[in-house]
């Protein structure tokens, strides 16, 4: 029995067969529609299954990667070795008083809409963020003046040893598009948001306005990884890229959006290599023209194509 078959058999002891896939194409799970294969693609249905898979990864020294819905992520064409976990089945959202509790596989958009239904204010800013709740905590997602750190009370995580642990928001070092979640090796499984009662019409008005701004300014008609770069201090990344005459620039099938310069779209069957080359070209050009270093907001992971 080869090593791959041995790992597969062990995974079947922990997770239902229909939730364990071998050589799964990751581009099917990403907004960019890019990325190679995962050796093992796991979609657990309980916290206990996640804990078991993490412990197996540790015991057998199997590489392990967590994948949300891939809205702010680029995976290289060679894919990812070892185990990739996706938490799409853990998507329950419910409320307790003035809090909304959401599992990490739920979309943060859906948590925002749920809060609206319960006449709770605070998550309006998230009504256009395409990522999952887990991903939103991972990078302290934000938009239009709001961010996760403003409303997060606490989260439950599976730590790198496979233990289920409660983390207060103050323990997560939430800052501009960052947290200590990746450094700690935590897997967010559930988040609790503290919100405020408000009039349904007032909440909806804000969300409708933000939705209009997003849909009118962002190139949602093409696959993309969302906003590519963090906002440099004292500048706006999109404005710097626009003023560098980079809109419409393409490498292979990847193109700097003509609608919003902060986005790079997959316009014509781009490869991950196209995407990365274009990101580097934008960084180099902006540095030469304005002396500003553009730092990536999007994460790039995986192996290069053989």
Automatic annotation (TrEMBL):
<feature type="active site" description="Proton donor">
    <location>
        <position position="227"/>
    </location>
</feature>
<dbReference type="InterPro" id="IPR011601">
    <property type="entry name" value="MurB_C"/>
</dbReference>
<dbReference type="GO" id="GO:0051301">
    <property type="term" value="P:cell division"/>
</dbReference>
<dbReference type="GO" id="GO:0009252">
    <property type="term" value="P:peptidoglycan biosynthetic process"/>
</dbReference>
<dbReference type="InterPro" id="IPR036318">
    <property type="entry name" value="FAD-bd_PCMH-like_sf"/>
</dbReference>
<dbReference type="GO" id="GO:0071555">
    <property type="term" value="P:cell wall organization"/>
</dbReference>
<keyword id="KW-0131">Cell cycle</keyword>
<dbReference type="InterPro" id="IPR036635">
    <property type="entry name" value="MurB_C_sf"/>
</dbReference>
<dbReference type="InterPro" id="IPR006094">
    <property type="entry name" value="Oxid_FAD_bind_N"/>
</dbReference>
<feature type="active site">
    <location>
        <position position="177"/>
    </location>
</feature>
<keyword id="KW-0963">Cytoplasm</keyword>
<keyword id="KW-0133">Cell shape</keyword>
<dbReference type="InterPro" id="IPR016169">
    <property type="entry name" value="FAD-bd_PCMH_sub2"/>
</dbReference>
<keyword id="KW-0961">Cell wall biogenesis/degradation</keyword>
<keyword id="KW-0285">Flavoprotein</keyword>
<comment type="function">
    <text>Cell wall formation.</text>
</comment>
<dbReference type="InterPro" id="IPR003170">
    <property type="entry name" value="MurB"/>
</dbReference>
<protein>
    <recommendedName>
        <fullName>UDP-N-acetylenolpyruvoylglucosamine reductase</fullName>
        <ecNumber>1.3.1.98</ecNumber>
    </recommendedName>
</protein>
<feature type="active site">
    <location>
        <position position="297"/>
    </location>
</feature>
<keyword id="KW-0573">Peptidoglycan synthesis</keyword>
<dbReference type="Pfam" id="PF01565">
    <property type="entry name" value="FAD_binding_4"/>
</dbReference>
<dbReference type="GO" id="GO:0071949">
    <property type="term" value="F:FAD binding"/>
</dbReference>
<dbReference type="InterPro" id="IPR016166">
    <property type="entry name" value="FAD-bd_PCMH"/>
</dbReference>
<comment type="pathway">
    <text>Cell wall biogenesis; peptidoglycan biosynthesis.</text>
</comment>
<keyword id="KW-0274">FAD</keyword>
<dbReference type="GO" id="GO:0008360">
    <property type="term" value="P:regulation of cell shape"/>
</dbReference>
<dbReference type="Pfam" id="PF02873">
    <property type="entry name" value="MurB_C"/>
</dbReference>
<dbReference type="InterPro" id="IPR016167">
    <property type="entry name" value="FAD-bd_PCMH_sub1"/>
</dbReference>
<keyword id="KW-0521">NADP</keyword>
<feature type="domain" description="FAD-binding PCMH-type">
    <location>
        <begin position="34"/>
        <end position="198"/>
    </location>
</feature>
<keyword id="KW-0560">Oxidoreductase</keyword>
<comment type="similarity">
    <text>Belongs to the MurB family.</text>
</comment>
<keyword id="KW-0132">Cell division</keyword>
<dbReference type="GO" id="GO:0008762">
    <property type="term" value="F:UDP-N-acetylmuramate dehydrogenase activity"/>
</dbReference>
<dbReference type="GO" id="GO:0005829">
    <property type="term" value="C:cytosol"/>
</dbReference>
């Amino acid at each position: 029995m080869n090593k791959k078959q041995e790992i597969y058999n062990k995974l079947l002891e922990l997770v239902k067969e229909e939730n364990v896939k071998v050589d799964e194409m990751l581009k099917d799970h990403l907004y960019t529609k890019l990325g190679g294969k995962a050796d093992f693609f796991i979609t657990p249905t309980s916290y206990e299954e996640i804990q078991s898979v993490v412990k197996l990864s540790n015991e057998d020294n199997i590489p392990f990667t967590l994948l949300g819905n891939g809205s702010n992520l680029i995976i290289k064409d060679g894919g990812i070795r070892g185990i990739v976990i996706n938490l799409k089945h853990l998507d329950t959202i419910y409320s307790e008083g003035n809090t909304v509790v959401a599992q990490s596989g739920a979309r943060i958009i859906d948590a925002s809409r749920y809060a609206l239904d319960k006449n709770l204010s605070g998550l309006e800013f998230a009504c256009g963020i395409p990522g999952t709740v887990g991903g939103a905590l991972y990078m302290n997602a934000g938009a239009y003046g709001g961010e996760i750190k403003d409303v997060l009370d606490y989260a439950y995580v599976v730590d790198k040893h496979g233990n289920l642990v409660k983390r207060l928001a103050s323990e997560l070092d939430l800052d501009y598009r960052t947290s200590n979640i990746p450094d700690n090796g935590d897997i967010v499984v559930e988040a609790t948001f503290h919100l405020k009662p408000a009039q349904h019409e007032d909440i909806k008005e804000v969300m409708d306005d933000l939705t209009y701004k997003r849909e009118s300014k962002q190139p949602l008609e093409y696959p993309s990884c969302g906003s590519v770069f963090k906002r440099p201090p004292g500048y706006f990344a999109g404005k710097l890229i626009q003023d560098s005459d980079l809109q419409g620039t393409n490498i292979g099938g990847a193109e700097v959006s003509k609608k919003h310069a902060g986005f790079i779209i997959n316009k014509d069957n781009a490869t991950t290599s196209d995407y990365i080359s274009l990101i580097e070209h934008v960084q180099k050009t902006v540095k030469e023209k304005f002396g500003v270093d553009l730092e990536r907001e999007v994460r790039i992971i995986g192996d290069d194509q053989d």
